[in-house]
Write a structure and sequence with these properties.
Length: about 350
């Protein structure tokens, strides 16, 4: 639901739209029917729609009629071809092929269904999830983390013992395809009914990017401890995760003083190539931290370069990021971006 929707009517007599209109339709239903609809929504959608329902308590009869008219028009534009399509397709297959051959065919072509157990994770708070997995094998914990949104996964990670955190991030980063059997084990852990797992099925979760997002959402002290421990476990993997955590656009978070210090420490040839593919806002920020003469010189050099291979630009940006990370570790600059960077 759009974030722009407000919880209250924007003006008396205004025609309700978006979540307001959805809230009015839901309030017109019986409690049982409304509950069934709410049960199909994500937690964020339930929260947003719930707030909207409180905001339309004083809606007028004319506004209700306008919502109903809009709903009827939209409903007429929809077909019913997708409703209960699973049962319809199964019926066709069974009549055409017979029960045994139909089930064999359906097993190969039926799209995978969403996991009820994994969906339940969305409704749990980090402490509940941490308590649920605290005595499980680290690989199961890593699988859970990989299925959570990064901010929630970061909270769960920080509730686990310190000595486990780097190992868990390593496991998330190297998770790869997850078999149906592993998903079934996780479903059993979440105490939800599980259909027999079909052999051969696999889904892709984890990877360095997902691991980096989780670490990025931890507090600064936890991030530094995890990366330091991860370097002892696997230096190459630690560097890959660091590269994913801190990309060139993140330099926007530097204050002017730190940016100026960084720019004076980077070779001008590397800076010219790195800025060749940079976001315009980042270029403007960097030029603003130089003297007008130096900025004009770099701009002219960029224009003179002409087209360049993306790999060259990325290598120059990686070099500049390495300098920024080294200077931040030495305390020369402050990369910013974390609530606990300051005291």
């Amino acid at each position: 639901m759009a974030e722009a929707d407000t919880m209250t009517m924007t003006a008396p007599g205004a025609v309700p739209e978006g979540s307001q209109a959805a809230a009015i339709l839901l309030m017109l239903l019986g409690e049982e029917e409304a509950a069934q609809l709410l049960g199909r929504l994500d937690p964020q959608e339930v929260q947003h729609l719930g707030g909207a329902m409180f905001g339309v308590a004083d809606v007028s009869e004319r506004q209700v009629n306008s919502v109903l008219d809009s709903f009827v028009v939209r409903a007429r534009e929809r077909t019913t071809i997708g409703f209960d399509s699973d049962q319809q397709i199964r019926g066709m297959m069974h009549k055409a092929l017979g029960n045994e051959r139909a089930e064999s065919m359906l097993a190969r072509i039926t799209p995978p269904t969403r996991s009820n157990g994994l969906e339940a994770l969305k409704w749990m708070d980090p402490r509940t999830i941490a308590a649920l997995v605290e005595n499980e094998h680290p690989q199961i914990v890593a699988l859970v983390l990989a299925h959570l949104d990064p901010p929630i996964a970061a909270d769960v990670l920080q509730l686990m013992p310190d000595e486990m955190q780097a190992d868990l991030i390593q496991r998330v980063a190297t998770l790869g395809p997850v078999t149906a059997e592993a998903i079934a084990d996780l479903e059993e852990l979440l105490l939800r009914p599980v259909a027999p797992a079909k052999s051969g099925g696999a889904t892709k979760r984890g990877g360095t990017s997902e691991a980096a997002q989780i670490v990025n959402n931890t507090r600064k002290t936890a991030e530094q401890r995890i990366i330091k421990a991860l370097q002892k476990l696997d230096k190459t993997l630690a560097r890959s995760i660091e590269d994913e955590m801190f990309v060139f656009d993140n330099l926007m978070a530097l204050d002017d003083k730190s940016m100026g210090t960084l720019l004076r420490s980077v070779d001008s040839d590397i800076l010219v190539v790195a800025l060749k593919g940079a976001d315009e806002r980042l270029k403007t920020k960097m030029f603003g931290c130089m003297s007008s003469r130096a900025a004009q010189s770099i701009q002219d050099a960029i224009a003179d370069k002409g087209p360049m291979r993306l790999a060259e630009v990325q290598e120059a940006q990686k070099d500049m990021l390495g300098t920024a990370r080294r200077m931040a570790a030495e305390g020369t600059i402050n990369l910013g971006g974390k609530d606990d960077d300051y005291v």
